[in-house]
Every structure is written in structure tokens, then in C-alpha cells.
């Protein structure tokens, strides 16, 4: 499944040749790129280079910071300044000087310009069929639509161009978000739907179903409910995708080619091609290594403790009925060395840590031959002093397991090889549900969501998991999206799309609640971008920053 890395192996240099000044200084490199893109092999390689930016956003901590934290379901973990608390907290220190916003902004525009290069040049290529030219253009426009979608969702009105940039450009525009959707994103994705092949030539390549799924997401964001439902329903009904059962099998790293994943960003176990790798395995897990019967290993991961689930997130799961609790969170750790816990010998394979979601009397905890970390409803993981790691309530919590990467080559390796699921069938059911509800068709909305809830039910609880049309409202839809898509880089966009970001953050994210305000519906424009433009009067900072 990792053939896509023939795509990425050359992408770095080709991507830079269209976007970075450093290569413009070499006339041979420039001339080679100019001529090479007009050959069949050159335009194909240029298209492959258009994928590079995906791995700068998906599976990277900067992308997680701007989509996962600062919401109602995740806040700051334990880790101090490395956790970028100013982003989650919407603090006065969250400014255009943020390295996170600068990194994402720069990389997305590298991706846009590489796509522009392919789209602008493909028509002049000789030696390939018109059909293949259309497919190449469609693939590049799919990616460009995705890159611009992230840009407008994060920053609102941004610089917009459909033309290739070569050399140094010092003027920038602030094109209204609506214009970018109507003249860029929507036409790009509609062209992609009409011209992409029915199936991907390689895993990770764009194809028709992926374009329809992304267009459904965009139409939902735009409030075009009928179009969103139609597109999502088409992906559900007219392809061979199937929900994976049980839910936990979705996250088996040996099951990445499963029937539910519509489109993934590819990573690999080849260190020469993997670049930064998928580092999602680092951020959602607590540090189990303080336990005397545990040391760091690849199965349990390298714990950076970046993101702390909120109390509200834990409250969303009915653990007696919903398999997504155990399918999403790790709550038991087994000893991997011999040690002594509470005066009792613990050997490899014995339980070493058990997180439980109810308060447990101290005498029970102190008598157990393993750590019991109990949830007390005031953040998570209030650990007694006898466990010798203090009482920091941000340090110990159920760990999100869907990004764990036990196939990493070493315990300290940060470059994971797990593919990142950008789009899966469950999201299509959620889009169709919300779009139907918006059109006052609660019966259809319940029908869509009950398919997901049937898959999510523990054995024998299928009937109890069903919901009636009268139970469907915006709160329920957002709760179901949280349960199903936790951590997959949807949440900040979901809250912004539904106009609930300020309300829900104030209610459920205690760190961010005092600071968040209307200005935070967009991010600060990178200061380096503002400093570079020669028309600063026409390219101001977003209000409030």
C-alpha cells in the first residue's frame, strides 16, 4: 500500500522548484524544471509533488494544534510551553509570530502554488491523451481545493491566486472568503468529481469518491444542505465502502487498507521516504513510565502528553452500550518489567495501571497490586502521592489509541508510519445526517445516524443505541461527531461551521473559557507574511490580533 512514496520521494525538490527562491538562483535547475514539466514524465512528477504539503498538515503536531485543541473536547496536556498553551487558551500571546500558524500557512501556499503549476501547464504537454490531461488537472484541482479550504477555514479572507508564481512576488491580496469558495474551491472540486477516475491508481491518490466526499464536506460548510446530503449519500450508496466492525478494528495498524477509509495521507516505514512521518502517536497518551513496572516501549508509545481530553468529552460516552469508548481509549496498561506496586510484586504481563471513570476509595487503591487512577470529575488523573508522581491532574488520563504506532522501529522514533485517515465512510453518514436535519427531515437524519450507532453498539445493545427522529438536534449531531471522529482534525472546523465555537469552548474548556471571543473565529495572519508584502495597507492583520 505504500507505493505512493514513489510520489513523495521526488516531491520535495519538485515542490521547491515552483515555490522557493533558493532554487531560482540556479539557472540550470530552473531551466530543467521549466522544460521538464512540459514532458509526460515531468507533468506526472509535478502532480506527485502536489501531494507533499499533505504530510506537513496531516499527522503533524501543528495541524493538531489548530484543529484539535481550543475546542470543547481537548485542552492543554502536561508539558508546559511545548504544548503551545496560547493556542488552546486563545491568550493575548497567540499572535502572528506563532510558529504553528506560520508553518501551516507557508506549507499550504507551497501546496497551492505547486497545484497551480500543474493546472497551468498540463494543457501544453504533448505525448499524453486528453483524458489523461483532464485527470491530471482534476487531481491537482482536488488538492488545491483542499489546501484553500484549510486556508479559508483557518484565516478567513486570504491571498487567492489560481496562477503559478515563479520568482519573487511582493504584492498580496485579501480575497473575500466567499469569493474563494465560489471561484476556487467549489469549481475545483466539481471539476475533480467530473474528471477523476472511479478508482485510485495508487493508494493515497485522489479519485472520484474522495472528491465527492470532500465536496460534501465543503457544501455542508457552505450551508448547501441538499447538495451535501446528495453527495454524501452517493458515496455511501454507490461505492463499495463498508463500515468496519467492530469499531476498534479501524485502528489496527495492520488493517489500514480497510473498507471504511475513503482517502488517506500515506506514510511509510522507509526512513528515506517518510520525512517527518505521522507523529500523531506522540500527543494523546499519558506518561505510563512513572509506574515502577513499566518502561517506555513501542506498543504503548512515546508519551508527549500534549492534548488533555476535557470532562465533557468523557461524559459523551455511555460505556455500557457504546463500543467507541474502548475502541477509542486505552485505560489498561500491562507491566513490561518486574516491579513492586503497593508492596506487591508485579511481573511482565500483569496489570500495572488501570484508569477507571468513577472515584475509588483510597484504601482500595492502596491495596491493589496495580495503580488505580480514578476520575474525579475535575480534569482527570488525580493521582495519590503514594504513587510517587505527584497530584498533577493533567498528567494521567485515558489515552487515545487510534494513532498509536507499535510498528515504529525504536522506542524513541517520532516518525510514525501509520496512514492518516482524512476521509472515511462514517463522516459521510454524519454529513448526510446533519444535512437532512437542516432540511427538517429528521426521519432521514435518524436513519443515517442509526447506521453508525448500530456499528458502535456493544454486542446485544444494538436496539438500545438507536435514536428516534425527535432526538436529533444540533447538540446531538455534534456529540455524535465527537464520539466518532475524535482526534481526526475535524472538531475546530465543526464548531466554527455550526456557530458554536465560542459557546461550547466557554462551557467545556476551562482553560480557554476566559479568553475566547469573536476574533478567534480566524487565526492571526503570520507576521512574516505581513512583513514581506509591499502593499501592507491592502493586506492587514486579522482584526483583534
From TrEMBL:
Keyword Signal applies: yes
Keyword field contains Membrane: yes
Pfam families documented for this protein: SusD-like_3 (PF14322), SusD_RagB (PF07980)
Keywords: Cell outer membrane, Membrane, Signal
Occurrences of domain RagB/SusD (ranges): 288-545
The SusD-like N-terminal domain, residue ranges: 97-220
Subcellular location: Cell outer membrane
Main location: membrane
Domain of life: Bacteria
PROSITE patterns in the record: PROKAR_LIPOPROTEIN
Sequence similarity: Belongs to the SusD family.
Protein name (record): RagB/SusD family nutrient uptake outer membrane protein
Organism: Cyclobacterium plantarum
Amino acid at each position: 500500500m505504500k507505493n505512493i512514496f514513489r510520489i513523495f520521494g521526488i516531491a520535495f525538490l519538485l515542490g521547491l522548484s515552483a515555490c522557493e527562491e533558493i532554487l531560482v538562483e540556479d539557472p540550470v535547475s530552473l531551466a530543467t524544471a521549466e522544460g521538464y514539466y512540459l514532458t509526460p514524465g515531468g507533468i506526472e512528477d509535478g502532480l506527485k509533488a502536489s501531494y507533499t504539503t499533505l504530510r506537513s498538515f496531516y499527522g503533524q503536531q501543528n495541524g493538531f494544534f489548530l484543529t484539535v485543541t481550543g475546542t470543547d473536547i481537548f485542552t492543554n496536556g502536561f508539558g508546559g510551553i511545548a504544548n503551545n498553551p496560547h493556542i488552546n487558551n486563545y491568550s493575548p500571546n497567540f499572535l502572528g509570530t506563532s510558529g504553528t500558524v506560520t508553518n501551516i500557512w507557508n506549507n499550504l501556499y507551497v501546496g497551492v502554488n505547486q497545484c497551480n503549476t500543474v493546472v497551468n501547464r498540463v494543457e501544453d504537454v504533448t505525448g499524453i491523451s486528453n483524458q489523461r490531461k483532464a485527470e491530471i488537472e482534476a487531481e491537482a484541482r482536488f488538492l488545491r481545493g483542499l489546501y484553500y479550504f484549510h486556508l479559508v477555514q483557518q484565516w478567513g479572507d486570504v491571498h487567492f491566486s489560481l496562477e503559478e508564481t515563479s520568482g519573487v512576488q511582493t504584492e498580496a491580496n485579501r480575497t473575500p472568503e466567499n469569493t474563494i469558495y465560489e471561484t476556487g474551491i467549489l469549481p475545483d472540486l466539481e471539476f475533480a468529481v467530473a474528471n477523476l477516475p472511479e478508482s485510485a491508481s495508487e493508494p493515497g491518490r485522489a479519485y472520484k469518491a474522495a472528491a465527492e466526499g470532500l465536496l460534501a464536506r465543503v457544501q455542508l460548510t457552505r450551508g448547501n444542505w441538499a447538495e451535501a446530503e446528495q453527495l454524501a449519500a452517493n458515496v455511501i450508496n454507490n461505492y463499495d465502502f463498508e463500515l468496519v466492525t467492530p469499531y476498534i478494528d479501524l485502528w489496527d495498524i495492520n488493517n489500514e487498507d480497510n473498507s471504511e477509509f475513503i482517502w488517506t495521507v500515506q506514510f511509510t516505514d522507509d526512513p528515506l521516504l517518510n520525512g517527518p512521518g505521522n507523529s500523531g502517536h506522540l500527543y494523546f497518551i499519558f506518561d505510563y513510565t512513572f509506574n515502577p513496572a513499566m518502561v517506555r516501549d513501542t506498543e504503548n508509545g512515546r508519551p508527549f502528553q500534549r492534548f488533555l481530553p476535557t470532562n465533557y468529552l468523557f461524559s459523551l460516552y455511555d460505556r455500557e452500550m457504546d463500543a467507541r469508548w474502548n475502541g477509542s481509549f486505552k485505560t489498561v496498561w500491562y507491566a513490561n518489567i518486574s516491579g513492586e506496586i503497593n508492596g506487591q510484586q508485579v511481573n511482565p504481563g500483569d496489570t500495572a495501571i488501570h484508569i477507571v471513570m468513577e472515584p475509588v476509595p483510597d484504601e482500595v487503591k492502596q491495596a491493589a497490586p496495580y495503580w488505580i487512577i480514578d476520575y474525579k470529575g475535575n480534569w482527570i488523573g488525580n493521582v495519590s502521592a503514594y504513587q510517587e508522581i505527584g497530584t498533577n491532574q493533567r498528567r494521567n488520563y485515558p489515552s487515545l489509541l487510534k494513532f498509536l504506532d507499535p510498528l515504529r522501529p525504536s522506542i524513541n522514533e517520532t516518525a510514525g508510519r501509520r496512514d492518516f485517515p482524512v476521509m472515511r465512510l462514517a463522516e459521510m453518514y454524519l454529513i448526510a445526517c446533519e444535512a437532512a436535519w437542516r432540511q427538517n427531515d429528521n426521519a432521514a437524519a435518524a436513519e443515517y445516524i442509526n447506521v453508525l450507532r448500530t456499528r458502535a453498539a456493544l454486542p446485544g445493545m444494538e436496539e438500545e443505541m438507536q435514536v428516534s427522529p425527535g432526538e436529533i438536534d444540533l447538540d446531538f449531531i455534534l456529540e455524535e461527531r465527537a464520539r466518532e471522529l475524535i482526534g481526526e482534525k475535524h472538531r475546530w472546523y465543526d464548531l466554527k461551521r455550526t456557530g458554536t465555537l465560542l459557546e461550547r469552548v466557554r462551557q467545556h474548556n476551562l482553560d480557554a473559557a476566559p479568553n475566547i471571543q469573536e476574533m478567534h473565529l480566524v487565526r492571526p495572519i503570520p507576521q512574516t507574511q505581513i512583513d514581506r508584502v509591499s502593499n501592507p495597507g491592502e493586506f492587514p492583520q486579522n482584526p483583534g490580533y
